[in-house]
Amino acid sequence: MSDTIAAIATPPGEGGIGIIRLSGPDAQPIALKIFRPARPGRLRSHRVRYGHVIGPDGNVIDEALLTLMAAPHSFTREDVIEISCHGGALPVQLTLEAALAAGARLANPGEFTLRAFLNGRIDLSQAEATLDIIRAQTSVGLAVAQAQLGGWLAREVRAARAALLEPLAYVTALIDFPEEGIEPQAIAEPIRQALATVERLLSSADQGIVIRNGARVALVGRPNVGKSSLLNALLRVERAIVTPIPGTTRDTLEETANLAGVPVVLIDTAGMRASTDPVEQIGVERAVAALASADLALLVLDAQQPLTAEDEAMLVATAEQPALIVWNKCDDPALPPPPPPPHPKRVAVVACSARYGHGIDTLAQAIATALLGGAPPVAGAATHLVSNPRHRAALRRAAECLRAAQETLATNAALDLLAADLTGAANALGEITGETVGEDLLDVIFSRFCIGK
Ligand SMILES: Nc1nc2c(ncn2[C@@H]2O[C@H](COP(=O)(O)OP(=O)(O)O)[C@@H](O)[C@H]2O)c(=O)[nH]1
Ligand SMILES: [Mg+2]
Fold it and tell me: Whole-model pTM?
């Protein structure tokens, strides 16, 4: 990378400090043009210097601290300079402009991380993990992203890919010397091992992706069963209006809650019933739409009353999707809840009381468990999860190619087909770590980053 990039690394708005970051071969000369240290002397790596940022006209822009992280011991493996000034819009903006006037180029989104990847300090899955760390919504999601930054996924994928390159070389050589004849056992075992790794990684992906991306859960049920009260109880704040008057909630309302480590968007809906009030009718339509967009329906029923025709209609309305039946208003935990009504896709039944708080933790756990595909919420140690849909897609392609290779090997052992399948698998795995990835894909991935990262 021949040029030196600069960007504001801290978010816009007021803060204690604001940081401008530079990376590239001219980071030091540019920094020395715009920063006057209080005491003379050359910059030393990983040492903080106190001084002033000077604008192109020679005026002091701000009092600041400067840190040099000399190549290769930096985030990008290039010379990196960080200037910490006061965290207001003008000090950081004018410092950035001074750096640009002194020869730096404004960085693209994610360009610092892109350089860290291109210079081989991290692989692509680790680069993506840095963004997941920034965007993590729960501490479990953060732990999963930290583990990925630590490189476990890169190591597993690289090992599986490396194990395939040997049989690939063997098959390719045989294509040139067909008279040799193939020894199927020489390549069957590496393929079997690579497929086992890929399948093990894939088996964690549905959970990992829910933990990283979250899921949508719609609270549905007839008016007055306590949907809004349950939303408030799960959020632990009085967010939705609760009254004894049926039809109080007229619009859908969305709030994110951390339920046992899973970021869940809870959608409170208007109770579904036939209504002549046009506002309530629209609310009911929105409730139907919310239900359609949800990964899981919480079908709320009133345990203190027999099921009504409206409840039965709700059981039908949710029949197509996974539903968790909630018996609300079980105010006396000593009393058993009524038997659950039949539902074709029932994932669990929970008895609770939104009013008294009984069973709310159980409900939160049950929601998380249902979203994680029936497995209990992830405990602290289990952070080795594939959590990125891009990785899952690549793993699926690798698995397909490896199964096709097994099939070819078992039936006709056509060498060119085998070579194509093994190449396909190796390339799919290489896309995860970035060993076989095109520039357009890199553009797509890094454009999602913020500027200055
Ligand atoms: N006894 C009892 N009443 C509840 C409980 N949850 C909600 N309610 C009451 O039921 C009424 C309707 O509650 P609300 O949350 O507005 O129901 P929604 O129409 O389904 O959103 C209100 O008077 C609540 O105080 C509960 O667990 N036990
Ligand atoms: Mg309501």
Answer: 0.86
